[in-house]
Amino acid sequence: MKNDTPIQSILDSTVVSVFINTLIALFLAILYWEHEERAVLIWFITFIIVLFYRLGVYLLYKKEKIAAKRAYLLSLIGIFASAVMWVLPLWTFLRHADLFFQFFMSLFLVGISTGAMILYALDLLVALGYVSITLLSLLLWYVSFMDRPHFIMAILIGVYYIFLLVNIKKIHRLYTSYLALSGQKQGLMSAFEKSSEKFKALLDHAPFGLFFYDKDFKIQEVNKTMLKSLGVSKEKLLGFDLRKLDNEALKSSLFTPIQKRKKGSYEGPYRSIFSGREFMIDAQTVPIYDKDKEVVGALSIVRNIDEEYRRKKRLEAYANFCFNNPNPVFQIDCRSGEVVMENEKAAILRSLAMDWERVKSKICKIDTIDTFHFKVGSHTYLFTSIPTQDGMRNVYAQEITDEIKAKEEADFYAFYDELTKLPRKKLFLKFLEEANKRGKRFGKHNALLFIDLDDFKNINDTFGHATGDRVLSVLAKRLKGILRSVDTISRFGGDEFVVLLGDLSEDEQKAKEDVEKIAQKILETIKLPITIDNHQFIVTASIGGVVFQNMDEEELLKNIDISMYEAKKAGKNRLALFDEELKSHIYYKNEILQDLHKAILYNQFEIYYQPQIELHTRRYVAAEALIRWNHPKKGVLRPDQFLPLAEESGLIFDLDLWMIEEVARHIQELDVDRVSVNLSIQNILNCDFVAKIAQMSEEKRLNPAKIEIELVESIIIKDYHKIESIISRLKKLGFRFAIDNFGTGYSSLAHIKDLSIDTIKIDRSFVKGLGIDKDDEILTKSIIDIARNFGITTVGEGVEKRVQVEFLEALGCDLAQGYYFCEPLPLKKLQEFLKMQSPKR
Ligand code: C2E
Ligand code: CA
Q1: Could you tell me if the CB of 502 is within 6 A of ligand 1?
Q2: CA of 285 to the centre of ligand 2 (A)
Q3: How far apart are CA 283 and CA 735, in angstroms?
Q4: pTM of the prediction?
Q5: Is 75 within 8 Å of 58 (Cβ atoms)?
Q6: Model confidence pLDDT, tens digit, residues 57-85
Q7: Strand ranges for 524-583 from DSSP E
Q8: CA 744, CA 651: separation in Å to the nearest integer?
Q9: Looking at residue 134, what DSSP letter applies?
């Protein structure tokens, strides 16, 4: 019985009730039909309508068209209407029926009432109502006859009515408690079903694998976790024979429960024969018995302990790392401040650390991985603190004393020179900055001295760098020793030292004088002999100096550089102070250099020619080509105003080539036997230059027989062998050679002969002394004599006076050149001069 509420029980009884009512009503109608046709028909139809009504209500309820409560109330009308329908015949067509029929009808109604009472027992009100309507109507009906037999019947009905009333309650209670019980049972049943499903789901999704196998080692049941980790379907695994496993240790642990009735255990790697996947497992297997204590199979619980295993391995590795670590390693609980774990090294470190509490607080302040330095005694440690989630810190300490020292040293040597321990440029510039500030503030002068050792390269090249270094450190010490405390000395590298002299006089002149004195002292100190490994070294230096109050660092450094070069140029071992004159000279030089680059391009060079006279014929037979620069702003510049710069900048190469080519062109227009050309030493020693001349000569752009190359005497001693091969190469091509400024370079005339020199030009300084200085006369005479012996032509240079001409003539000199005869002239002018052809006597 499903209906567990009175409402439902009433509604659910509709069909049965309608069916029984219809049957009985039909029976009654058929039974009484012959007595009262019309009344029976009306009654029957009405009854059927009532019953249809009840069925209709029930159907509406079933189809959920009306709510249960409403259906119940509508049903009650139907039920009570049915009860009325049953008693209606008594008052209508049965009123006059015979006694037998009346008793039959009473029995009938008693039966219906009893049936209804049982049917509606759950709803006490309906049951009572129904029974009361039927039985009390019947009782009243009997009483209404007012005769004895009916009266007895009325009493019987009354007694039965009371009996029903008494029992109706009992039946109701019985019924309700039955229903409650049955409901409980049903609840229990569904709860049981649900929980067993839950249980199955629980096992299926348990965090461990589970399988059951029979004593033939065939798998009978398995949960989903197991299937998932093996990577196999249930169909495939069920019936799998465990004897097919290839892992012997695992197999034996699975056989133990069946063969020895004991628990089997296995922990280790397992490779799934289905998916090939490998992992660490823990398998615990127990035998399963039937009720006769016979082993029927075994249940195995398998856990994937991959993660656990890895964690364990990691822990092992960590423990190993800690305890076997040569460095202090420990763990500290920052909540209690206690050291939870430590290795021996850590214990020693802790015992040595006087201010352990500070270390601890530093460690615990760190909440992400971080490091800090801490000094324990004379040792420095680098502590690395790694916080864990539970307020712990894993700490790793590493001694870094050496590294710190190395770093400190590296930091020191970033600013100080390793060899001399003097400040490097970087640091020195800071001092300079300070000096500038002081100069600006107090009006006092400062000075910067750039000391560059002279020819220091020779010491390095001859005695090696180690010796060179020792010399440098001796000098550094000496210099430091003579400077005042307000002065700073720095090594800028190599053999360069820079000294900053501070706190000089406010008067510039006085400051300069002081600087000169100090520089002198420096030069003298440097010059003192230095003995290293029994060798004595004497070093000199060139000093460039600048006196300033407040000057831009870059400009200062540029200026001391310029003045130092000036000191070198002036003959080394001296001081050159930077001043306005030097500055303008430098600017002039730079300007000239800039213009020089454009001069060839803009055709600003011009060749002047100075004729040479043959003394015994008084004919102009030769000329010397001399370069001039027609500077657009500065006018005509002489060679000494730009040639040194041309040599310095390498422009001399193109210049001399241009010269030779131009001279070769002009020769055709000049009525002379030959023209001499001056070549720079730099060029004549340059193979490329010589090759170029040779090439030009082969290309017939030159006329070598008419060109005489003038070389200064000094070159012959400087590089005799090289010059010999060059001269012989060019001589083969037909060029003539002359030695210029002869007598100043100490070369021997024997050399001149060997080199097959054609001409010797006696230097102006000797010619100048003719008629004045006996020595000059003797020297000139001997040069001319020897040259004549060797068949070399002689030219007297710089002839300015008649007496010089007479002397040269008397001594047998071949040619003469000088202002006395003619100044160097431009080509056209010379041509005019030569045309006049009236040489001076
Ligand atoms: P140098 O070879 O001794 O040339 C002679 C210099 O003496 C010329 O000066 C000339 O003008 C000058 N001179 C001539 N007669 C007299 C005189 O009676 N008295 C005095 N005091 N001087 C006289 P310049 O033209 O200024 O040349 C100077 C130097 O420049 C030349 O000296 C020569 O070595 C060099 N030089 C000139 N032109 C060139 C060139 O094209 N290439 C190269 N590399 N050097 C050249
Ligand atoms: Ca010359």
Answers
A1: no
A2: 119
A3: 110
A4: 0.48
A5: yes
A6: 999 988 888 888 888 888 889 999 999 99
A7: 530-532, 535-537, 541-548, 575-577
A8: 27
A9: I
